[in-house]
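Quick look at the format.
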Amino acid sequence: MAKTMRAVDIEGGTGPATALHIASIPRPSLEDAPNRALVRVKAFGLNRMDLLQREGHYPLPPQAPLTLGVEFSGVVQQVTNVDEDTETFKPGDEVFGLAYGGAYAEYIVASCKMLMPKPKELSFQQCAGIPEVWFTALQAIHLVGHYSAVSNESILWHAGASSVSIAGQQLIKALAPKASIFATARSDEKCDFCVEELGATAAFNASTDDWADKVLEATGGKGVDVIIDFVGAPYFAQNLKVAARDGRIVCLGMMGGPVLKGGENIGPLVFKRIRVQGSTLRSRDENYQGSLKQLFEKEVIPLLVDGKHTVHVEKVLPWEKIVEAHQLMESNATKGKIVCTID
């Protein structure tokens, strides 16, 4: 096997989408690390963190390679010794999985703890857009948001047509069919998508509506039990306004910026006993990510296979069009995943 491979690189180390290009870099090797597999990548999914990393604004975990990309699908080429607590793979197995980085390349070395067999009912393109999205949604619902399906808690998903929110709305619909599910988006088309395609109770256009007042009106003034937020500072005060007593606000992104304008009233944090917690998945260790993988395999894969849950892929592009793919994500015009394929 050749010692080099093709991978997406960034001219100058960081830069705009136009700095992306395909270059030859050293192929990763398994070395002596246990529980590792070398995978020939067939497809990889794009995520917001890729844009931030490309621009030099994302703090990489120490074990992450410089090459972009955390989710992929492909075919196993080699495997190192696997311990008895880890699922075993062999050359030729079709898989998909999550990594700390390196998916924008012909080959990736991944932990067997984070690999999963590719269901025959799903394509390589679909599987490449699953791990980061669905794991993040599961993490937000169960491990951070402590969502109670038994209580039919209400939930609000910001950026409702983003991939994580698309997954999350489907998960809640399955967990608690009677629960109220709300979403915000920045166009009527995306709001209609959340209601008509995903089954949200209501969705509000954050560009034209006072979504906080709309949420309070829809809940009879009670507010929502759980809020999943990707926007950050611009929504902070309104999140406090619409959070119910003992509500949880899960902060997963800062698309609108991290700095508050000043003058925000934090009184509701105390008076309504609100808990605010931020989280990222990429910085978590393999055991934590592995627990999410097990939850995903138990609760989600059967529903994806039988079509009750859907992987919404907005566009599939050959990786030679990686510049176009990043520019499309930057446009905020998509509903669902952008996936690139490698021939």
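Next, a different chain entirely:
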Amino acid sequence: MALPLVKSALACSDFTRTVQPYIPQLNDLPQQLWQSATNPQALKQLYLNTNPLISAFAFSLLIVPIFLVISEINKNYSQVDRVWSLLPTVYNLHYVAYAHAKGLPTQRLDSLAIISSVWSIRLTFNYWRKGGYEIGSEDYRWEVLRKYINPPLFFIFNVFFISLAQSVQSLHLSSVHPVLKMTQILLFSVSMPTYILLLASPLVPSDNIDILFTQVLLASVFLAFTADQQQWNFQSAKHTYQRTAKVPHATSFTALDFDRGFRTTGLWALSRHPNFLAEQTTWVTLYTWSCYITGDFWNWTGVGALGYLVLFQASTWFTELLTARKYPEYKKYQQRVGKFVPKLWGPGIGDLRGEMGEGKKEK
């Protein structure tokens, strides 16, 4: 049986009942896939007979060597970055498709599938317009790290963090390879709450609280889109100014804004990383949704949301370290504006703008 027999919503979050019994399926799955490779009907039956969390986890393991080999051949370590905006939605759509195939109620899952797809479209579009899919494009932070880490150590870093830790999530089980236990792995793990929503779908009908969660998710996507667009407007105008030494006519920014080098208006007057705030809110909200559905204060899928928060803390620290070295006035900005959440007290961004002679805020 591919799905556990659960009689209460709370039981849907019981790891020992809903996950652990299905771990052995990982051992047989490669051979079964090989035997069914040329038979579409057999593949469909194998898909239905395999626990959806296990099949998602198996897929996440399957793509790890692909990322590793391509990155080492090209010496370009942004391979996972190129699918960062896609994989969580692939996993979510997988759970939704499985629920449809099993004849389970899908109203809640269908709403999540739509929102997750919108999230992917927004993030993929922003990555594309910044040149992320151009040949040779690579996150500048990997280049900086290579200057401080020798090649053998960086290869190990590529294996265990870039290729593995960013694409799958350890299940922390004694039957799973010990190497996997050591990782805080994300793109599979942030979608794990959807598995709980799937299990609970026959037991907990959709209600108005589900609408509230969908609205929060949509709001977080809209916040991220707005922040991205505001940053894009500033950076595009700044690059024009640097190229022509003239402030573009169709902008409300000033030469002082561009000389400073970073944006301090709009959402960026309230948060140094409003887009990052929105990203973290999205996946924490999904996890919270699973807790509400099961009636519990926490569940095991929280390791995904927690790992996401930890990664963003570390990544943001490193990004700001480089930014502060590049732009001398960035430290003043850090003192006055919150990293993610707006500060409720202190001098505020207004004083910073006054000190630096900043031009009027863009509408």
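The chain has a mean pLDDT of 85.

See the schema section for token definitions.
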